[in-house]
């Protein structure tokens, strides 16, 4: 693997040097590909266009990110920003590369979570959009346009991850392919209308399953905190190391979102029926609400408290999008029509 990693470092150096003027663009793209964006941005916009597609986005995002965590624990992938120093292969010539605020993620690197979750979630979006366009226009060319944008998005997210030294090229390729396959498979079975018990058991099952895998690997002698230590050692700015990028943060996010999805469907089976104008208003209010929820500061010590509150935060996400905001919009618009 040394040859693969080394070529990846030189590729990242060349990419930074040749596209330095587009740095802000790559940083925006990498934020768009963040798994968190699937829950906070893609989900609300998709939900108010198509309820089933929105539920599918949340479902696919949670399962694909959970699987990405499992793969990372099993594959032990390096990350470029720490491998440069740890490999001791660049004594004669050090690569001229920079780190960024999004570089220093603390989990293992293979496969890329950004690429994997983006590939899975956006497949749900583009396949729904492509089917809608074909049903309205019967044009193969027009209905194929979303799939072209899908490929371009995956390529852009992959390049952005290599650019900021978060991943090697082979890791984003593996993540993109895996995400594409998961998007196809998971979107065929969307748990719409399932009872609350299903989501409760599924959420707890994913949580316990991940913890048992973690404990089992630890018992076998594998140190699963190795990547956290390397990230802290080689990150150029200590403040760029954030607890919300740790593996257990993604685990609690996924389990919280699935439980929240079950609660939202329990409180309001079938959702709220809104015309297009109230839907647009709901998108705007939901986006603002999720923005502020995401910015809520959480105590990082003790870590158990942080993960517990992080779990609750993402239980709230489906409630805001599927129950509270559309319910309030329906209440006020309905009253206005009556008046």
UniProtKB/TrEMBL annotation:
Keywords: Endoplasmic reticulum, Gluconeogenesis, Hydrolase, Membrane, Transmembrane, Transmembrane helix. Residues 53-187 form the Phosphatidic acid phosphatase type 2/haloperoxidase domain. Its main location: endoplasmic reticulum. It is an enzyme of class 3 (hydrolase). The chain crosses the membrane at residues 56-76, 115-135, 147-166, 172-190, 197-217, 305-325. Its EC number is 3.1.3.9. InterPro entries: Glucose-6-phosphatase (IPR016275), PAP2/HPO (IPR000326), PAP2/HPO_sf (IPR036938). The keyword Membrane applies. This is Glucose-6-phosphatase. It comes from Channa argus (Northern snakehead).
């Amino acid at each position: 693997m040394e040859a693969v990693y080394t070529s990846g470092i030189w590729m990242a150096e060349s990419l930074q040097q040749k596209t330095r003027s587009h740095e802000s663009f790559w940083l925006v793209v990498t934020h768009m590909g963040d798994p968190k964006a699937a829950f906070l941005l893609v989900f609300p916009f998709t939900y108010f266009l198509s309820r089933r597609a929105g539920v599918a986005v949340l479902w696919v995002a949670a399962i694909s990110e959970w699987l990405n965590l499992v793969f990372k624990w099993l594959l032990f992938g390096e990350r470029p920003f720490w491998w440069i120093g740890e490999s001791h292969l660049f004594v004669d010539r050090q690569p001229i590369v920079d780190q960024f605020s999004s570089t220093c993620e603390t989990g293992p690197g293979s496969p890329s979570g950004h690429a994997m979750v983006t590939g899975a979630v956006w497949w749900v979006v583009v396949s729904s959009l492509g089917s809608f366009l074909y049903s309205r226009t019967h044009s193969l060319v027009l209905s194929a346009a979303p799939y072209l944008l899908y490929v371009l998005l995956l390529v852009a997210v992959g390049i952005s991850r290599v650019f900021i030294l978060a991943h090697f090229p082979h890791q984003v390729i593996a993540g993109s392919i895996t995400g594409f396959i998961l998007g196809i498979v998971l979107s065929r079975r969307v748990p719409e209308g399932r009872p609350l018990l299903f989501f409760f058991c599924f959420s707890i099952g994913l949580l316990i399953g991940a913890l048992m895998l973690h404990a089992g690997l630890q018992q076998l002698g594998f140190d699963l905190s190795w990547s956290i230590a390397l990230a802290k050692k080689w990150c150029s700015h200590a403040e760029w190391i954030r607890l919300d990028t740790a593996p257990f943060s993604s685990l609690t996010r996924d389990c919280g979102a699935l439980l929240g999805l079950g609660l939202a469907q329990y409180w309001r089976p079938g959702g709220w029926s809104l015309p297009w104008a109230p839907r647009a208003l709901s998108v705007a209010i939901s986006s603002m609400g999720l923005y502020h929820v995401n910015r809520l500061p959480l105590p990082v010590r003790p870590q158990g408290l942080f993960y517990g509150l992080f779990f609750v935060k993402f239980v709230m996400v489906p409630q805001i999008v599927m129950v509270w905001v559309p319910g309030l919009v329906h209440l006020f618009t309905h009253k206005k029509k009556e008046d």
